[in-house]
Amino acid sequence: MPSTGGRFSDIWAVADRIPGWLTGDQAELLHAEAAALPAGSLAVEIGSHRGRSTVVIAQALAAGGGGLVAIDPFVDGRLFGGSSTRIEFERNIAAAGVSGTVELLCDYSTEARKKWTRPFSFLYIDGKHDYWTLSDDLKWRGHLPAGAPVLVHDCFSSIGVTLGILRHVLFAADLRYERREGSLALLRVGAPSARDRRRILAELPWWARNVLLKVLLRLRLRPVARLLGHDSPYDPY
After folding, report:
1. Residue 96 and residue 34: Cα distance in Å, rounded?
2. Residues 177, 233: one domain?
């Protein structure tokens, strides 16, 4: 299947067939930020799973001759899928026509970072959602130029990811928070203002709501979760 080019609606029609938790609005934000990069830009994605977000980013980059390094260890186990998920990922990338744009780095992001030397212009973080991994993944921004986007999925939803944001972005001197689309946060390399920091704090009530929803879902209290506007068996994302 040939690449769909740069039109988001066509790209999403392909990507949305791949199982995953990225919403259409979140995918459109990823696409817009990737499409705005200079021609020939390199992007890095941490956590690819079956390739839903990979296809969106790669399609946006392909029009300008850019490339995407997709980093995922494809760990075996019930929650991750291991080698079978990698096979699905490679099949989905090929079906979307972006195999030539995507370079798979099958490794843990925390290990890959120690050996990384290439500059890049876009960072998408959707790896392991614990505080320590997210904290390490944010260090990848050291390879980014000023103004580059850093997008983090499950922000203000995952407890570990949010604690990492509060510790390493709220007080950072080189990273500012712009906005979010659902749980997809858009950060940008650059000196933050007091207003940027206040925007992070303003998201805490939404985070508290999401934590409560997760508790309710685990207690199988979906009717109560619906009263809070969450009509889904899945955690908010």
Report:
1. 17
2. no
pLDDT at site 1: 41
Whether residue 2 lies inside any domain: the answer is no
Sign of CA dihedral 237, 186, 109, 85: positive
Write out the E strands in 53-99.
67-71
Q: Return the closest-CA partner of residue 113 out of 82, 65, 69, 55.
A: 69
Q: Are residues 166 and 233 in the same domain?
A: no
Structural domain boundaries enclosing 217: 208-237
Residue 176 lies in a domain: yes
The CATH number of the domain holding residue 87 is 3.40.50.150
pLDDT tens per residue across span 181-213:
999 999 999 999 999 999 999 999 999 999 999
List the beta bridge partners of residue 150: 123, 187
Instruction: Please tell me whether residues 85 and 146 are part of one structural domain.
Output: yes
pLDDT at residue 48, as a whole number: 94
Residues 63, 38 contacting (CB under 8 angstroms)? no
Please, which residues have CB within 8 angstroms of residue 187's CB and are 6 or more apart in sequence? Answer: 149, 150, 151, 152, 169, 175, 176, 177, 178
The identity of residue 227, as a single letter, is L
